Please model this.
Amino acid sequence: MLAALQSGEGGRRISDLARDLGIPKSSAHQIAATLLHHGVLERDEDTRRYRLGPGLSDIVAHRRNRVDLPALAGPYLEELASAARMTALLGRREGDSVVLAARIPSPDPIDVSAPIGHRLDGRAGVFGKLFAAAMQPADLQGLLSKPLPAFTRKSITSTAAYAEELHRVRTRGYALDIEEYLDGVVAVGAAIRGDDGNVLGALCVIGLAASYSRPALATIGEAVRGAAESLSYDLGFDGSRETQQTVVMPRSRGLE
Model:
C-alpha cells in the first residue's frame, strides 16, 4: 500500500488502493485505518484521498540512526578485494580524521597494512578527495584556503590542481591516489551516500603501485564506483539529490 501511494499522484481513494493491490475494499480500509492511526498515512477529508504521512519520517530516522554500515558494506568489500586482488576498506569521517571501519585483506600473499580502527588525516589520499568533493562550496572554500599537506613527493599541494582533481572525482564518480599518501601504494575509492544524499563513508581498495597500471586502476575504479552506488541504493539513495559543486578559488593564494 505504501508503494502504491508513493507512485500515485495526488493520493488514492480506498477503491483505488483495493484495485491496485487486488484486495477487498474492506481489507484496504482496515490497513489504511491502521496506518492512518500511526501517522504513516494521512487523509484529505474533502476528497477522502490517502497519501503518505509524516510518521514515515520517524521510521526513516530510526533506520538511519541504526544502520550497521560495516555489516552492509561487508559483501561489497569481499567482492572488490577478490576481483581487484587488493585490500578493500570502508572509511568513515569522524571530525578531522577518517577511521577505517571495515577491512577485507587482499587474496594475494603481499598485503598493505590497514587495521580496523586506524585513523587517517582527513585530507589523506582517496578518502580526503572523496569527502572534499562532497563538501558544500563554503566548506570546500575554507579547506582550499589553507595549505595542503605533502604526505609524499607526489601529493597534490597546489590548490588549483587539487580543485581540478576534485572536479575529476565528481565527474567520474571515483578517486585515485597514485602514491600521494604512501610511497609505493595506490588506491581507488568511491563515496557512499545515505538516503538524504549526504556522504556516510567511502569504499576503497589499496595495493602496491608496481602491480597496477593507470588503465588497470581506471577499470578498478569503475568497479568500486558501482559497488558504492549499489551500497548507496541499499541505504535509500536514488541519485536525485547529488549535485555538482562549483568552487571559486581563493584569490589570496594568487589563483585566477
